Amino acid sequence: MRVGLIGAGRIGALHARSLAGSGKVSEVVVVDPAVERAEATAREVGGAAAGSAADLAGRVDAMVIAAAVEAHAPMLRLAAEWRVPVFCEKPMAVDLKTADALVGLLGETGTPAQIGFQRRFDSGYRRAKRLVDDGSLGRLYSVRTTTHDHEPPPVGYSDAGVFRDTLIHDFDAIRFVTGEEAVEVYADGLRAVADGFGSERPVDTGVVLLSLSGGAKALMSGARRDPVGHDVRMELFGDGDSVSVGLDAALPLRSVEDGVPGPVEPVPKTFLDRFGAAYRAEIEAFLEVAAGERASPCTPEDAREALRVALACDLSRRERRPVAPGEIR
Known about the structure:
Rossmann fold, six-stranded parallel beta sheet, Dihydrodipicolinate Reductase, domain 2
């Protein structure tokens, strides 16, 4: 199949290589506002470059959207108009009205769609899910998650804040691993880094207490800067076992206990270092979706629920009170 790739930045370039390496893909057609970048990526993978997304009409069998956040909704609408299977990096939208409209449009047109929550394809998160599903953890008491970027995003990045842009991955991962829904959130945060975004920037460091439908509590931490590396973990505690995702020798956390060695280099510095294999696996899964071989493993409805929890966190922080995600309509 021919696949149109919208966006040739860091993640777009990785997706281009994954697409080109798949036996299901005959050609990758790259679109990016920076034409030179689109052409360079196309050359790297033996593909072609197009001047705009509109130029892909009738030319591609599937679309992968890895552009800036503000382009996600328009490109999803275009895919629905063409009824072309589409993969879109998270978030598909930053407000619930737009997300609801996209869910409706993609459903009405019967357009297969997968949203890019790559942790669903990480081996550690998948093993944790199996342990929950087969009862090995027993009754789940609590969950802890950490998502700390090594460096804040560059100036000019469309930053929706730590809840909608960073911890939204954790909201989806908790739902995926535990099978439970968030029923209440209490969130707070501060502006600690990324001064280049100005005084009105969203909070970049946040904490969340999440209540789950099965009774367990989740404690969550998100930050835009970690001096040691890119730290992403999940810990699950039940009456049958206690397990961790992301706990290995390269964990970017330095112990001050006697005789405990520091992290083994190289520690992950970016999300690509931490989740490269997962990103490749999710693209392979999408190509199976596009070929009609499987249902979407991360639907627009899944993405909407993670966004609803993130918006509830924004409201909780502003009003300094617990918020039920159901309040967000």
